[in-house]
Every structure is written in structure tokens, then in C-alpha cells.
Write a structure and sequence with these properties.
heterodimer; A: alpha+beta; Single alpha-helices involved in coiled-coils or other helix-helix interfaces; Heat Shock Protein 90; 4 domains; elongated; B: Arc Repressor Mutant, subunit A; 6-stranded parallel beta sheet; about 55% helix
């Protein structure tokens, strides 16, 4: 009876989600009241609490979708506005009006933030449609059981028992699927829209760009200073030394020779300095051989016994390679410096179109990105490319750092295309099956209408009419579920491929 | 002695040609790109080639690739590779076939004409000339390796010079030691590193490098 436990779990979750759907409906009705009061009677004061209530309920839905349905739904809301700041004279400005206290400007900001965010209205739509959209799907098995119990109590024990048995057997397959579908339906309305996602990404990239530009300017200043104080100064000295030697050539060849020797030494030192500088700007081996061999060269220079595996389809763009290279360089240096490590493993590979580098060492762990400036520096450098650094370093080790840079390689054509066409077909077909062929035909059948129209269920012989009608309703629901799930899944894969 | 030279910077190429001619070498070809170099190496079969790593048309490691390709066709073709920077990775690739006749030096080493010409001659006769910087980095990255830690500072100095490709006599001269003292040091180094002692200069360099690279 191994499948019993998951089935029961799924059933319990389904019942809980159905209950939550009712709660959502209540919250939706509360918000509907608030909207009516706000926009018809001008009682704006009730709007923010209603939105808060709606967001609390939908946040719960998102959490459950992540925990039970395995569908991660990101927060779609715009960032909350900062509290109002008083002007120099202590007054608060809001548009063309001045206020003595921050209450009203703060309220206005909150009002704009809530009412202009499409996510607020999508939440509203979800709350009102929750019992129909996902609620019915998960509530079906408990409802069937309740119906069976009602029939049994109503003097039809055989039919009641049959219905309960059918529901119990069907639940084994149906219940887990229903919970998953519920999550996907929730994701369709509760997830961020493409626009909101882009807006969030723009603000993240904006912050990253500012950091990168600052860091780059500082880097250029450092290089300028190094060249100015180092190689440039040495070249001046070399020139002067050679000039002096030239003058001494006739009168004191011995001294001239000594000066030329000095000039030669100075030029060697200047070269050394430039070489070190170049290594820090763009390592020659990276330019000559690409990331794989550059990482191998790093491994050879590292005091750790370092094992490198590289599996890349092609060379990534130079700035990306450079970011990944310096990340590995810093991570290996960290491992050797702080971690007491003796051995390290570097894996460079492509994950879809993303470049992933994993650096593992056998040191004592305890690395914390919040504290280490080196790790912060890597994150900043990666941020410009939407890249991320994840460090797992429990005290006692081992430390694993993963660097991931999206869109490093050309994406393979998405294999989901036929599925998406299928999904679109389902979008077209589900209302036809559910409404005219299913529900309307059912109404016609119930009122015994003489009109048969194009409803298949009314044209077939009598014993098959009800099964056809019920089948059409089920088909419509199924097509809707397929439409929602394929589009949501298609969206996710596309998302994975490009961002 | 016939030399093929590959260097894309005109001034440096002329300078090297003049320097080599002044020391009695016969520069049979002075080329400036990878494909030309490969053709010259195969066509001329020089006694030694002096090659810049970075050459047109790609300005990556064109020179090194040409040299490796030529040595695959003509095993043991002596080549001295020059570069603005040295990488252990490239040194390993040059030494990988184990047939010797390989040099790998920073371009700065040309400043000291005597030592440079000495390195060219050593490579031409099938020996090795590794840049001290390569050796230093090799030793630094192996510093924690167990047997290296047991060497005395003097033995480390001798090992560094040995790995550069110098003979016992040259090492003795460099460190102001007697030949026999150097002989004792080398014997001790070989014993500590667990290598078979050998008189052949090239073989012992390769043995040292193979050991250092075996981490």
C-alpha cells in the first residue's frame, strides 16, 4: 500500500487548497466591497487595508504553490515607496500641495503604489476566480465523496458506495495531478507579468551598472597611477640615462658602458611592471587560449593540487570569459589563503546557454560573502552580466562556490515549440467544449428544451446523452488545464533559456 | 648554424637578426606570421628556430601552435620560444613530447646577448632553456609538496638552475661552487626527489620538470 500515503497527502492538500479557495473568495468579496466603496463613494481609506488582506491571502497561495505544487511564483509587486522626506523648511511636498505632517503624502504614495500596480488587480481577479479556476479541480475528490455520502444517506447506499469507491480509486492518480495543476493555475495569475519581470530586471541591472561603472573608473585610475608612477617614470629615467651615456661615449667610455647597463636593468624592471599590470587587466593566456586553458594555467600556478575539467561548446564573449576567469582566480586564491585547503576542483561547463563554474576545495570552510571583500568583488563583477555567485561553506568545510553567467552561449532552439502550439490549440478548444457542448447543453437537457442546436449531447440516442454532456464538461476542464500548464511551462523553459 | 626567426615587430626582428648574425648564426628566414613560420620550419629544417608566441594573423598563440605542429612532423626540431609573458601551461606543452631541444624565455632575456646566445646554442644542441620565471612559478606552486620541502636552500638554488637547463659546470660557475660540490648537491637532490641520477643535461632537466609537473 505504498501509494496510499502520497494519495492521502495529496487529498488533504487538495481539501486545504479548496478551503483556501473559499477564503480567497471571501477576501475577494471584501476587496470588491472596498473597491466599490472607494470608487463610487470615495472612501479611499478602506482601499489599502483591503489590498493588504488580498496580498496576505495571495502570499499564502504562493507559498503553498511552492511547497505543495512545486511551482515557484515570484512576488509580482512593485517595490514599496520610501517614506516621504521633508523639505528643508520641514514641510512635506506632494505635487503642488504642502503638508505639515507626512501622513497624507505617505498615504498618497501608498495609494499610487497599490492602485497603479497591475499585480493588485491580477490578485483581485485571482481571488474572485479562485473557487472556479483552481478550487474546483482540487475539490473534485472530496466533493465526489461528499456526494456519495449524501446519496448513501438519502437511501441509495449502492450508488453512494460506488461513487465513493470510484473517487477513492481515481484519487490515486487524480489528487497529486490536481494539486500540481492548481499551482500552475495560480502561477498564471499570481506570478509577475513579463512587464513586471522586466521592470524588476531593469532596476536590478541599473544598480549593477552603477556599481560596475564605479568599479571600472576606480580600476582605470589605479592603472593610470601604476603606469604613471611605474613604467612611465622608468622610461623617462632610461631615456635620461642613455642620453648621459651618449655624452660620455667619447670622454669616458667606461662610465658610458656602466650607464647603459643601468638603462638595460631599468628597462627590464619596467617590462616586469607592465607584465604584472597586463596580467591584472586581461591575462594574455585568456586572450590567446580562452577560458578553459586560462583556468588550467591558473590551476598550474596555484599552490593547491587543482583538478580542472572543462566542457564548453564554444568560446564565450571576451568580457564574460574575463569575469569568469577573475572569479576562479579569486576563489582559488581565497581557498589557498584562508581555507587551509590542499586540493581544489574546478569545473567549467555550459548549462544550456549559461556558463557555470564550480570551485570546490577541501579547506575548513566558513567563507561568508557578506564579510569577504573578495567575494563581494566577484559578485559585483558578475552582476554586470546578470551573473550570480553562490557559496556553500559550512564551518569545517568543504567550500563549494558556483558562478553562473547566463546567456554565455547561443541558445539551442527551444524544443517546446510543438507543445506550445498544442497549448494554443487547447486555448481555442476548451471554451467550445465546456460552454456550448457542456454546460449550455446541460441546461437545455435539464429544462427539456426541444431546441437541439449543434449540441452533440442532444443529438445522440437517449442513454448516451448525459455521458456525452458530462464528458464534454470534463473535456473542457481538461483542455483548460492542459492549456494553462503547457503555456506556463513553455514560459518557464523560455525563461530559463534567455534569463 | 642555420636559424629561422619569427617575430612580427619589425624593429625587434631586425634587432634579433643583427644580434644572431653578429654571433655567427646564419639566419635563413626571418618571417612575421604563423603560416609563413610553419612553411619555413618544414621547408628549411633549420638547426634552431627562434619564435615569438604571439604572431599574426590571429595574434593569439599562433607562433606556439606553428612550432608544436612542426615538431609533430619533425620530432625534436629545436625551437626557442620567446614571449612577453610565461605560462607553465605553454612550457608543459613544449616539453610534452619529451624529445628536448626546447627553450622558453621571456623577451627581456634578449637584453643579455651573451646569455641569450648561450640559450640558443643549448637548444640547438638538443638541450633545454627554461626561463627562471617559469621555474620560479613552478617551484612556488609546488612549495607545499612534500619532497620539495626537504631540500636545503642551496639545493633549491641548484634545482632552479638545473631546471633552467644549465649544466653542472655552468651551475658551479654561477653559484661560485666547485664542480664536485655541485655534483654532490645534484646527487642529493635526485635522491630526495626519487629520480634516477643522470649525466645527460637534457634528460635530467626533463626528469626534474616531469617531477615538478606531476602534482
Amino acid at each position: 500500500m505504498t501509494p496510499l500515503r502520497p494519495t492521502l497527502t495529496a487529498l488533504a492538500r487538495g481539501a486545504a487548497l479548496a478551503g483556501l479557495a473559499l477564503l480567497s473568495l471571501a477576501a475577494g468579496l471584501a476587496m470588491l466591497t472596498a473597491v466599490v466603496l472607494t470608487f463610487l463613494l470615495g472612501l479611499v481609506i478602506v482601499f489599502p487595508p483591503a489590498v493588504r488582506l488580498a496580498r496576505a491571502v495571495t502570499r499564502w497561495q504562493r507559498e503553498l504553490a511552492a511547497r505543495w505544487s512545486g511551482v515557484r511564483i515570484d512576488d509580482p509587486y512593485r517595490p514599496a515607496p520610501p517614506p516621504p522626506v521633508p523639505q528643508a523648511d520641514g514641510w512635506y511636498r506632494d505635487g503642488r500641495t504642502l503638508y505639515k505632517r507626512p501622513t497624507i503624502p505617505a498615504f498618497n504614495q501608498r495609494w499610487n503604489w497599490m492602485s497603479r500596480d497591475p499585480a493588485t488587480w491580477r490578485d483581485f481577479a485571482f481571488l474572485l476566480s479562485a473557487p472556479v479556476a483552481g478550487g474546483l479541480v482540487v475539490a473534485a475528490p472530496p466533493l465526489a465523496v461528499a456526494y456519495g455520502v449524501a446519496r448513501a444517506a438519502g437511501g441509495d447506499p449502492a450508488i453512494g458506495a460506488a461513487v465513493i469507491l470510484l473517487a477513492a480509486i481515481g484519487a490515486r492518480w487524480y489528487a497529486p495531478w490536481a494539486v500540481r495543476v492548481h499551482g500552475r493555475v495560480a502561477a498564471a495569475l499570481l506570478g509577475p507579468t513579463e512587464k513586471a519581470r522586466l521592470a524588476q530586471r531593469v532596476s536590478r541591472l541599473d544598480a549593477a551598472r552603477t556599481e560596475v561603472v564605479d568599479a571600472q573608473a576606480a580600476e582605470l585610475r589605479r592603472i593610470e597611477r601604476d603606469l604613471h608612477d611605474g613604467a612611465q617614470a622608468r622610461l623617462v629615467a632610461i631615456g635620461m640615462t642613455i642620453g648621459a651615456a651618449e655624452q660620455l661615449l667619447e670622454s669616458d667610455p667606461q662610465a658610458a658602458r656602466a650607464l647603459l647597463g643601468k638603462a638595460r636593468e631599468a628597462s627590464a624592471t619596467a617590462l616586469q611592471e607592465i607584465r604584472r599590470l597586463v596580467r591584472g587587466i586581461h591575462p594574455p593566456v585568456l586572450a590567446e587560449r580562452g577560458l578553459g586553458d586560462a583556468v588550467r594555467a591558473l590551476a598550474l600556478d596555484s599552490p593547491l593540487r587543482t583538478h580542472v575539467t572543462v566542457d564548453l561548446p564554444e568560446r564565450a564573449s571576451a568580457p564574460l570569459e574575463s569575469a569568469a576567469y577573475f572569479a576562479v582566480s579569486e576563489l582559488l586564491a581565497n581557498a589557498a589563503r584562508h581555507g587551509d585547503a590542499t586540493e581544489a576542483w574546478v569545473d567549467v561547463s555550459a548549462q544550456g546557454s549559461a556558463l557555470r563554474v564550480t570551485v570546490t576545495d577541501d579547506g575548513r570552510g566558513g567563507a561568508d560573502p557578506e564579510r569577504g571583500t573578495g567575494l563581494r568583488g566577484i559578485e559585483r563583477r558578475l552582476g554586470a552580466f546578470d551573473g550570480v555567485l553562490a557559496v556553500n561553506s559550512p564551518a569545517g568545510g568543504p567550500t563549494t562556490a558556483v558562478v553562473e553567467l547566463p546567456r554565455a552561449f547561443r541558445a539551442k532552439p527551444a524544443p517546446t515549440t510543438p507543445w506550445r502550439y498544442f497549448g494554443r490549440l487547447c486555448w481555442v478548444l476548451w471554451p467550445i467544449a465546456l460552454f456550448p457542448q457542456g454546460l449550455i447543453a446541460m441546461v437545455f437537457k435539464l429544462v427539456d428544451s426541444p431546441v437541439k442546436s449543434w449540441f452533440l449531447g442532444l443529438h445522440v440516442p437517449e442513454p448516451f446523452q448525459w455521458p456525452v454532456i458530462v464528458g464534454m464538461i470534463a473535456l473542457g476542464g481538461g483542455l483548460l488545464a492542459v492549456a494553462l500548464t503547457t503555456t506556463v511551462r513553455g514560459g518557464q523553459t523560455e525563461d530559463g533559456a534567455c534569463g | 648554424m642555420r636559424v629561422v626567426l619569427a617575430e612580427d615587430l619589425h624593429l625587434l626582428r631586425e634587432g634579433l637578426v643583427a644580434l644572431l648574425r653578429a654571433h655567427g648564426f646564419d639566419v635563413v628566414a626571418a618571417v612575421e606570421s604563423g603560416p609563413e613560420l610553419l612553411a619555413a620550419l618544414i621547408g628549411e629544417r633549420p638547426d634552431v628556430a627562434v619564435v615569438d608566441v604571439r604572431l599574426p594573423p590571429t595574434f593569439t598563440d599562433e607562433g606556439l601552435q606553428a612550432v608544436l605542429a612542426a615538431r609533430r612532423q619533425v620530432p625534436g626540431l629545436p625551437v626557442l620560444v620567446l614571449s612577453q609573458h610565461v605560462e607553465q601551461l605553454y612550457a608543459r606543452e613544449l616539453l610534452a613530447d619529451g624529445s628536448g631541444g626546447v627553450g622558453y624565455l621571456l623577451k627581456d632575456r634578449v637584453f643579455n646577448a651573451e646569455q641569450f646566445v648561450d640559450a640558443v646554442r643549448r637548444v640547438a644542441s638538443g638541450g633545454t632553456a627554461m626561463d627562471p620565471e617559469v621555474i620560479a612559478r613552478l617551484l612556488a606552486s609546488n612549495a607545499r609538496n612534500e619532497p620539495l620541502g626537504r631540500l636545503t636552500p642551496r639545493e633549491r638554488e641548484v634545482l632552479e638552475l638545473m631546471a633552467e637547463g644549465r649544466s653542472n659546470a655552468a651551475i658551479a660557475q654561477r653559484l661560485f661552487l666547485s664542480d664536485s660540490a655541485v655534483g654532490k648537491h645534484t646527487a642529493s637532490i635526485f635522491a630526495k626527489l626519487g629520480l634516477a641520477p643522470s649525466d645527460d643535461d637534457n634528460r635530467r632537466v626533463l626528469a626534474v620538470l616531469a617531477f615538478l609537473n606531476s602534482k
